Amino acid sequence: MNRVALSVCTSVLQLALVGVGSLVLLGLMAKVKARAEGRVGSPVVQPLRDIRKLLTKERLHARHSSVVLALAPMVITASAAVAVGISPIIGTHPVLGQSADIFVIVYLLLTGSVASALAGLDPATAFGGMGASRAMTIGALAEPALLVAVIALSVQAGTSNLPGIVSSTASHPAWVFGPVHLFALGALLIVVLAETGRIPVDNPATHLELTMVHEAMVLEYAGPELALVTLGEAMRLGLLFSLVANLFLPWGVATGDSLGALAIACAALVAKTTTLALVVALIEVRSAKLRLFRLPELLAGGFVLSVLAVVMGLVIR
Amino acid sequence: MTWYLVALSLGALAAIAGATLPRRVRVPVAAALGALGCAVSLVAAVGDLIDGRTILVHSDRLLPFSGVSLTLDPLAALFVVLSSLVGVAACLYLVGYAHGPSASRSAVSIFMVFVLALSVVPLASNIVSFMFAWELMALSSLLLIVTDQAQRPKARSAALWYAAMTQAGAVSITLGLLLCASRAPGQSFVDIAASSSTLSATTRTAAFVLVLLGFASKAGAVPLHVWLPKAHPEAPSPVSALMSSAMVSMGVYGIVRVGGDLLHGGTVGWWVAVAALGIVSAVYGALHATTASDFKRLLAFSTIDIMGLSLIGVGAAGVLEDSGMHADATLAMMAALLLLVAHAAFKGALFLGAGSVERATGTRNLDRLGGLVHTMPTTSVVVALSAGAIMAVPTLSGFSSEWLLLQGLLHGFTDTSTPVVIVMLLGVVALALTGGLTAVAFVKAFGIGFLGQPRSAGARDSREVSRWMGWGSALLVLPSLVLGLVPGLVVSLINRAADTGLGGVATTPVSTGAGLALSQLRGAIEPAALLGALVGVMVVLALAARTLGQRRARRVDAWGCGREEQTPRMQYTATSFAEPLQRVFADVLRPQMDVEVTHAVESRYFQQSLTYHHRIADVVEVRAYRPVFGVVHRVGVLARRLQNGSIHRYLAFGFVALLVVVVVLA
Questions:
Q1: Cβ neighbours of residue B651 closer than 8 Å, sequence gap 6 or more
Q2: Residues B523 and B635 in one domain
Q3: Inter-chain touch B436–A293, beta carbons under 8 Å
Q4: Which 8-state DSSP code applies to residue B120?
Q5: Model confidence, pTM
Q6: Whole-angstrom Cα distance, residue A143 to residue A152?
Q7: What is the pLDDT of residue A233?
Q8: Which residue among B546, B576, B607 closes a domain?
Q9: Which residue numbers in chain A have pLDDT < 50?
Q10: Domain end point (choices B492, B514, B546)
Q11: Which residues, in sequence order, are CB contacts of A197 under 8 Å at separation 6+?
């Protein structure tokens, strides 16, 4: 099979898998939380049904909003989709894989956050501003940890190209149990909790405006635009989960050029991300949401871990 | 070089036109001549940069002692491109902006002198010409701060700070350059470069430290930055744009020219110092930018941040060159230079946009703005795109230059010497920290200033500014798009300039193409393809929405959580937006808050009025500069005791002084 067709195939599969799979992951985490709390919970596919329902509803815009409110869902989803399409999620040769630099992925995610913060400020409500301010604060503290943690891995691999990092980690299995990976994993887990708005950083199930972070920001969205925002945010979660899974357990990711390897990679990805989702759900069940002004301690902890990961890489070489 | 002489003559003509023509035609004619001059030098410099040639011109006539000496090498050409680019935009903007005191003879002609001086500084190639151009640049910008607002105490104080810092810097640079030339047969830069290796190591270090102090202060490096957040916001907006994009870059130019070119790199300690200045400035500037609510003050602090990043690149380049990694050093230097060019364009556009906002609404306090996206569409697009570029949104210019900087730093990690690795590590950490903080600052600037509902009558009644102001600022968006989308087209030009800055050995660490691709290691970005993918996904989404039968959205009231009425005062302001971060970084920022409550006469339980003051002072100014002022002031008070007006006492002083001289000389 030729290289180009395989790249396209990889990217399309990644988009489809992450697009649908991340919504299922959300449902799964809700289910696990419900069961752990002694409730039955909604079915695992509930987020998919919600999206279908939202798509049939009417578009509503707040009276004082501008074109930003209408554009933001597109930007959020497009930036997440492009990041998913070019990252090494099931194979190391996706479309544009040569420019899937860590810097590109981090700043594509940042573009999505900026778009949602601006959409929060656009309708001129207090809640939107509150959510945007908090989300940007958390993002500003989480982003350095994310960037430095991945830089630690890229110093070890000698390239900042994500497919490159994944394939060199796959060929040096000992790295996975080394201090660089362990510290970076700790940092990335904290970042994932913060960037995807899970407890202890934010409560995705909250219904009280004053405690919301992400939900307050998207409060003005309804109908198909809310569906798009939800999908974009779910894809961000799916992307971060798969990146953590593949950077720390690179096995199963298709490095060659056969369709069979891609099929195995899909199965491996499902297994890895499901496990990670279970871990995150259990963290959510076991911990309480932190006060907003205790969060910097957690995120600074993540940042310190990531810097330690870089230092470790320099010490042990 | 002929073209530069044409351009310089046009600039001089513009200054003369500004000083002599009658009021009605003064601004358009002077601005047209100035813009034409800048355009000519821009085209000529780009041409010479493509050819990579070096041209010399010398005339014994114009200046005493040594004559005028101008040299155009790739490094100089790059900075001429940078300053002429902003010059064209600022001149066009001036046509719409200048009225009242800012259209006076002195204001217009000094403005043109400033524009002219900015493109002479990188060309000057002997000590006298360089210091002449440098001082022309400093003094003209100083006068411009006070020309149209001499009555405002804030502008006067800013001008005083600026005057003191820039003159101290100029003295330091002059001493340093003279020290460099102490063994040289003449005082041209060629002589200095040829003889500087015969200087002792101590002399060279002393010379570098002296010039570094002066240039770093001009570039706004912490702790020599205190004048910048005062002077840049107070200057008229086209002047702020020139100061904050072209003039600060000259500080970095000076460091590269003297340290890398004239003194051939020196020791690793120099560049560690440069990188340290950069790291501190980047983080400190970004932090203050997030909490500033004056739009132009926010921009000034973000200038300190970007200059810091660029100094990190220069410092890393010096350190890597010292340990023999020439290709990686070139990469870091290219990143620093690309960042300077990108910064000149987007910061120029942002300052011009802020000027338009100030003109349209009468305020630049973000807490009193809002909703401008409805009334000022052009300015909003200019500010949004430039803010996107500074936030390093992929496919805009800040992104490609910061990516290059990150690559330069990452490659440095392969070195084994401790100072190199520490500089790289802290540089990466600073780059990561500023990324998130810059995003907060500019989401605040755009989201609070331009979105939502107007928070004051001025913002509510605002109108789009004149076409000249719109075009002037929109012109500076083009470089952000070009450098962001097809950075590969200009990277070979930047490469030449970086080679000159590092002593002239040519290497090509980045291969040419539309995007950027490193030639030695695996690393590439294709911003144009990324944009294609992003737009493609958005088109697919829009088409999908259409097939689902989506129509125009219905306008409804925003969610009020049970409240009946929503007023603009209920929105978050810039101050409240930044409050969480301000609380997180309270130890560094040291915000001061006062709440004054006046109780009602009838009962203490009711409040009649409540005032809230909130201020974030510059900690460096309060802690490092104010105590010095205190000491100087006390010494001055003490010295006053010597003078009581008695002629006898003064005669006695004279006699004692004479005695001391006689005793000492005897």
A1: none
A2: no
A3: no
A4: H
A5: 0.95
A6: 14
A7: 94
A8: B546
A9: none
A10: B546
A11: A204, A213, A214, A233
